[in-house]
Amino acid sequence: xxxxxxxxxxxxxxxxxxxxxxxxxxxxxxxxxxxxxxxxxxxxxxxxxxxxxxxxxxxxxxxxxxxxxxxxxxxxxxxxxxxxxxxxxxxxxxxxxxxxxxxxxxxxxxxxxxxxxxxxxxxxxxxxxxxxxxxxxxxxxxxxxxxxxxxxxxxxxxxxxxxxxxxxxxxxxxxxxxxxxxxxxxxxxxxxxxxxxxxxxxxxxxxxxxxxxxxxxxxxxxxxxxxxxxxxxxxxxxxxxxxxxxxxxxxxxxxxxxxxxxxxxxxxxxxxxxxxxxxxxxxxxxxxxxxxxxxxxxxxxxxxxxxxxxxxxxxxxxxxxxxxxxxxxxxxxxxxxxxxxxxxxxxxxxxxxxxxxxxxxxxxxxxxxxxxxx
Length: 374
What we know:
Elements: H1 2-28, H2 32-42, H3 45-58, H4 64-77, E1 114-119, E2 125-133, E3 136-139, H5 146-165, H6 174-188, E4 199-206, H7 207-210, E5 212-215, H8 222-236, E6 239-240, E7 243-244, H9 250-270, H10 275-373
Antiparallel strand pairs: 1-2, 2-3, 3-4, 4-5, 6-7
């Protein structure tokens, strides 16, 4: 009999423990006001005390030894990284190979420099060596033998290098330096007899007036060519890429061009060329230059107009796009607000339904508890 009473008592204890577990779980699902209302209104004083005692008895304090082990383990794991968190990676050095030499394949040689050839009416080929130094173009005699022409070109380049390197001297004179250097270079190759067949032409930058260099006819005397070079350079004045930089107005520019033109015609007369033909050539070149300048100005104006129109169209398109984006942004914001409101309403409805269900379940659990305590 005593055994049966103990078994019944143990069964009631287990049932009460299970019932309290379910009650505790269901109360946690409710909000705080609803939970307090159920505890203070539907539970008796004895049930409150029993429930409180059960909660305190089921709570377990953390094991100090386990906590210490975990803390030590954490310190051990982070000992390699005392700052904590992810370790920083060192940036590796990146090696690059030596940049290959870039060659400008579009570079052009200076006009008239080098070795040229042509065929005459009988089909014979002639070779001519030419170099340009200090606004002076030097042309050797035409040769049928290419090896002799190459030697002439080497001699001209050697004389050109000597004349250019000696320019830094205060007593530098182009006529003496260049003449002596050319004769010496030709003598070393056994071609001194060809010195008298050298021809010289002056090239003066005149891009501002005719769109290119102003080149005189070839002269047989180096002294005459150097004198013409000096006069033409003085008349032209200092330049930068063929354009005048020290001229104040168009009148001064026109006066300089007239002086340069008259000196050029004098040089053509000394060379034995037709002055009328040279004057016509200059006038034609000047007309072509003016036409090209006008065409360039017209093209520039068209480009500026097209650029202005393009910028205007881009600005209008950007403004329209901005308005459209603002409209879309406003509509998206409204849709987001509606979705958030709907989400809040759905959440409130679900919480309300859950609370009703939980309250009903708690009421049944409390009824079972009362029956169990009887």
